[in-house]
Amino acid sequence: MHTVWIQMTKKNLLTLGAGTHVAFDTSGADHLRDLGATNLVRVCDSPAVGPSRRDVLAHTQMRNLWYRSTETWDHLYSADVRWETPVVVWVTPSLRDRFNLWRACSWLRDKGISRRDILIIDLPLAPRGPNAPPRTEPFQCSDSVYMHSKDAIEAHLAAARSWPRERYDQAVALWEQFVDPDPRPFAQRCRRGIQGFPELGSIWAFLSRFFPRLSTERSLHLSRYDELLLQALSTRWKTPVKVVVSDTIQDHWDFIFCVGDLTLTHRLAAWAEHNASSAVERAPGPRGPDRPMWSSVYRLTKHGKQLRERLPELADAPRLPVGGAEAYAPEAPWVLRDDGRLARL
Known about the structure:
The protein is built from 15 helices and 13 strands. Helix 5 crosses helix 7 and helix 8 (about 185-190) packs across helix 9. Strand 12 and strand 13 (about 340-345) form a beta hairpin. The chain is an alpha/beta fold. Helix content is about 40%, strand content about 15%.
């Protein structure tokens, strides 16, 4: 019955005027609106970094605390959404989209919406311009629905189908494992791979960089992300803007772009506020608090230079939430081994 109903509405869907359309970035949502979509849900969080929870209320509260803001960019859980079927989910190869796709599948199941009434449109990688620099990472966060023409959007919409039950169930399971306090099962699934989810290898290549590392000699080291941040700092005061434009960060721009500049400023602040270590110092910057990239300046201390070489204890670095887990938590000491596996210290 659902399949017949979707086929009957296919003509209306070609104009984007029927059902509910979900887009994972503001530009993509605006593009769909310009093309005729009227019932849009903008889902603009980036759960790849920061805390995530299975419980919707807990998830929302923790994300607001993480961003230090109550400004609503993510409308997935909004009570104002009219979930008219079919629900059309537009997803690109962007790493951020993949996490939000799993989260949306989980939420739509909680809402009681049948997977048969959900069309997941998995857009291909958008072509890059002739002068675009080559990609340096197996992941990227620059794709958007707005990069696809009206003709391409309508063609993909006309060919859209519901996912098979097994694939949809796998998407929900991936979200549930990502938000689990023990990150090892999720890491194992990413490393082994799952049919229909080719992004998992590149997702783990990204996430693994937030966990402290354990060498074959059993010595602890900062996560690759924190190592880059401390390498980008110096004994001179720097605003987060100066940190971002440093050669260290620019050489790893695809990675840092996926992390986001707001998360970078939060991490610098976390280092400066960390009581167990005086690795990073902070002072007022040239702009006010409404300009977080300019409101503070940071510099590296002698102890910070030492931490770049070796991490004596997990507690010497500030905690960093990753999904349902926490990096650098002494009570849950997850470390990345040289072979890329996650283990408990």
